[in-house]
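I had to read the description of the data format several times before I understood it. In essence, backbone conformation is discretised, so a fold becomes a row of integers matching the chain in length. I therefore recommend that a typical entry be quoted early in the introduction. For illustration, here is how one protein appears when written out as sequence plus structure tokens.

***
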Amino acid sequence: MAPHISLVLNWILFLALFPIAFFWLRRAWRIIVRRDFSEVALKRGEPPANPGRYAPFAAATNLIGGSVIAWVIFGVAAGLFSYETWTTIAGVTIWSKFLFDFALSRQAHAGARQFAGKAGPAGR
């Protein structure tokens, strides 16, 4: 009996939760404990002028997101969640984390407008 494609995709999604939780919790650890703000509110790979100002928000999103994903992993392994429940929780958590990080990076860089060296709006 060949595995059905949905079974394979479910396993891929479940196994992908492990590195997601690891990286998010590790990033929260670096921000909270080690006070390493090098990955806080990056925009095009550049940190904001004052990353320490936005560090609590980045730490909170990483800690909450990583904890929820770890809870989902435990719930699936223990058989507490149905397929619809754990995929919904994981999907909403992943998308929310991405959107919050995007909004935080845009807010952190809002005051630093950079122009491509052109004078005036017409490029003259």
